[in-house]
Design a protein that fits this description.
Layout (H helix, E strand, L loop, with lengths): L1 H7 L1 H24 L2 H14 L16
Keywords: Membrane, Transmembrane, Transmembrane helix
Length: 65
């Protein structure tokens, strides 16, 4: 998409590249430094974007621990 925008108008292409980089920095920052809930959501988004399946949930023991 940025390559097409770049061929239409250079400023539009630069704007899209900067926006995509900013979104990537925000998502990675949220995954690494956010609260537990925000971090979990950011990692789920990253898995979704890379087309990877959700990991299996940890199995619960029958003793209730």
């Amino acid at each position: 998409m940025p390559a097409l925008a770049w061929s239409v108008h250079a400023a539009l292409g630069v704007t899209l590249v900067v926006f995509e980089a900013l979104v990537a920095v925000v998502v990675v920052g949220a995954a690494l430094f956010g609260s537990e809930v925000i971090s979990e959501r950011a990692f789920r988004l990253l898995r979704w974007l890379s087309n990877r399946p959700e990991p299996e949930a940890p199995r619960r023991s029958r003793t209730g621990r």
